[in-house]
Specification:
By secondary structure, the chain is α/β, with parallel strands linked by helices. The chain has ten helices and eight strands. The protein binds NADP nicotinamide-adenine-dinucleotide phosphate (NAP).
Length: 317
């Protein structure tokens, strides 16, 4: 087992499922692990359990609802202040919103949590990653990206929202984001890769209702444990053989060619620009939504007319 003593790692969605298994393994290797959870109590519970289970008392808890750009910015600022050097960022948190809901930033929730959150968090922590280089970014995508129709002019499910379509789209965006991130990080010593963890028995499909639930129930006996699901992300995070590998997609522990729509470099570059508008690094002072520029709001106007914003969002589980 390769050691991570002296290294700092941040794992989002570390309160359960694959993220929790990844964080536990990293702690076992001696890393200082920042366990990020949406709920501060759950984050502290995970911190305590991981400390107890691994004997590593450098596990720390951070809370941020990744559906809120203000919370992402505040959490990233706290992390940067405490840890100016970050060796590993695991963008794992994700969910599926069964209904179309808008976040406080007036963005469709699945897009906000699954794509814009890792985009914004990675940008806000890039200086810390570069300062720690060699460093790595691992983003948890999915084979479901192959179902996606990638239309960058309709990232928010306008005019018709479909939960599976929204989820698959964000998983394709995870791969496109990784391709462009790797390109932009060339020469910095920071590598970035995306990974499908396999079909894993976690709570992610808890909110799925109706006939869509049947295939999930039928699949359940064949799903892997969170620990098995963590193997692919961990390989990319710690295995010395992957220290110089960047901009790739893996299906568990094997490199895989993404669907054509998820590997086009021009689409990846355009997605980066759109994401920068939807999730700017600094919040516009006193602007509406606390984090979305006027231009982004203009782009969202058609969507907003059809959807009622809600104060806070919880992807259905
Ligand atoms: N399970 C699979 O078969 C499978 C297959 C392919 C890809 N994946 C990907 O694997 C990743 C991890 O999912 P999982 O299967 O381990 O599911 P999970 O057990 O439901 O874990 C998801 C984690 O993300 C967190 N999260 C969700 N929304 C959040 C928000 N708004 N703010 C902060 N944290 C939030 C959850 O926090 P709470 O505990 O507070 O809800 C939880 O810790 C996801 O990106 C998913 O797309 C999973």
């Amino acid at each position: 087992m390769s050691t991570m003593t002296g290294q700092v790692a941040l794992v989002t969605g570390a309160t359960s499922g694959i993220g929790r298994a990844v964080a536990t393994d990293l702690a076992r290797r001696g890393a200082t692990v920042i366990v990020v959870g949406r709920d501060p109590y759950k984050a502290r519970d995970a911190q305590a359990a991981i400390r107890l289970g691994t004997g590593n008392d450098t596990v720390v808890a951070e809370a941020a609802d990744l559906a809120s750009q203000a919370e992402i910015r505040a959490m990233a600022a706290r992390v940067r202040a405490r840890f100016p050097r970050l060796h590993l960022l695991v963008n794992n948190a994700g969910g599926i919103s069964m209904e179309r809901r808008l976040t406080v930033d007036r963005i469709e929730t699945t897009l906000a949590v699954n794509h814009l959150a890792p985009y914004l968090l990675t940008r806000l922590l890039t200086d810390a990653l570069v300062a720690a280089a060699p460093a790595r970014v691992v983003t948890v995508a999915s084979e479901m990206h192959r179902l996606a129709r990638v239309d960058l002019d309709d990232l928010q499910g306008v005019p018709r929202y479909d939960a599976v379509r929204a989820y698959s789209l964000t998983k394709a965006l995870n791969i496109l984001f990784t391709i462009e991130l790797a390109r932009r990080l060339e020469g910095t010593g920071v590598v970035a890769n995306a990974v499908h963890p396999g079909g894993v028995d976690t709570g992610i499909w808890r909110g799925v209702r109706g006939w869509r639930r049947w295939p999930i129930l039928a699949m359940r006996p064949f799903l892997a444990s969170p620990e098995r699901g963590a193997e692919g992300p961990l390989m990319l995070a710690v295995d010395p053989a992957y220290a110089g590998v960047t901009g790739r997609y893996f299906n568990r522990r094997k490199e895989s060619r993404p669907a054509p729509a998820a590997r086009d470099p021009e689409t990846a570059a355009r997605l980066w620009e759109i994401s920068a508008t939807l999730a700017p690094q600094s919040a516009p002072d006193g602007g509406p939504g606390d984090g979305t520029s006027d231009a982004a709001l203009a782009n969202l106007s058609a969507f907003s007319k059809r959807s009622r914003p809600i104060r806070s969002t919880t992807p259905e589980r």
